[in-house]
Amino acid sequence: MDSILDHIKKDLKILFVGFNPSIRSGESGHHYANPNNRFWKILYQSGLTDQIYRTYEDYKLLEIGYGFTNIVSRPTKAADEITKDEYQAGREELMRKIRQYKPKIVCFVGKGVYQEYSKRKVVSWGFQDQSIVPGVTDFVAPSSSGLVRMKLDEIVAIYSLLTAANKTK
Q1: From CA 46, how far away is CA 27, in angstroms rounded?
Q2: Less Cβ crowding at N or C end of the chain, within 10 Å?
Q3: How distant, in Å, are the alpha carbons of 36, 38, 141, 152 from that of 124?
Q4: Does domain 14-168 correspond to CATH entry 3.40.50.1580?
Q5: CB proximity list for 26: less than 8 A, separation 6 or greater
Q6: Where do the structural domains in the chain lie, given as residue ranges?
């Protein structure tokens, strides 16, 4: 199964980084395509978007300054199928993309994504005190997967911190 295309360009407001595409995303070619994934609803409820986008509209978010990539490009059923070698190669590739495209904020969609990227064991939700790439702000948000046990309103509250930061930039 093929990986899905990044939606990325220079100077994005926010670059969203997931673990890797789901099988459904790999089949459809679109980010956050699993019907149990709450990503699009979270963006809307947090005020990051003014509508609930459909998966196949993912590319349209470039128009409002949001992009998408993953730390690993291979689609899997679950993140625990990703190998250490894939994480290492993905980490290096992600750093290259962030340096090249210089988004204002990189939002890691899942604490584990940021832990793999930063090699930090202790990570809190929200803006990080020290970013990995100078000049780019790191933000850690809960995964939008339906498997996450956090309540939706708690997740939305964390993503809302991005909304507030976006309005001040």
Answers
A1: 28
A2: C
A3: 25, 21, 9, 18
A4: no
A5: 1, 2, 3, 4, 75
A6: 14-168
N residues, the chain: 169
* Strand pairing class (14-18; 137-141): unpaired
Q: Which of 98, 99, 70, 72 is nearest to 85 (CA)?
A: 72
Residues 75 and 1 sit within 8 Å (Cβ to Cβ): yes
Alpha helices in the chain (DSSP H): 23-28, 39-45, 84-101, 111-118, 152-168
Measured from the Cβ of residue 126, the count of other Cβ atoms closer than 10 Å reads: 14
CB atoms inside a 10 Å sphere around CB 121: 6
The tens place of each residue's pLDDT in the chain, 169 residues long, gives 567 999 999 999 999 999 998 899 999 989 999 888 999 999 999 999 999 999 999 999 999 999 999 999 998 888 889 999 999 999 999 999 999 999 999 999 999 999 999 999 999 999 999 999 999 999 999 998 877 789 999 999 999 999 988 776 5
Q: What angle do CA 33, 81, 26 make, to 5 degrees?
A: 25
- Residue written as token pair 């939706």: 152
How far is Cα 24 from Cα 140, in angstroms, rounded to an integer? 24
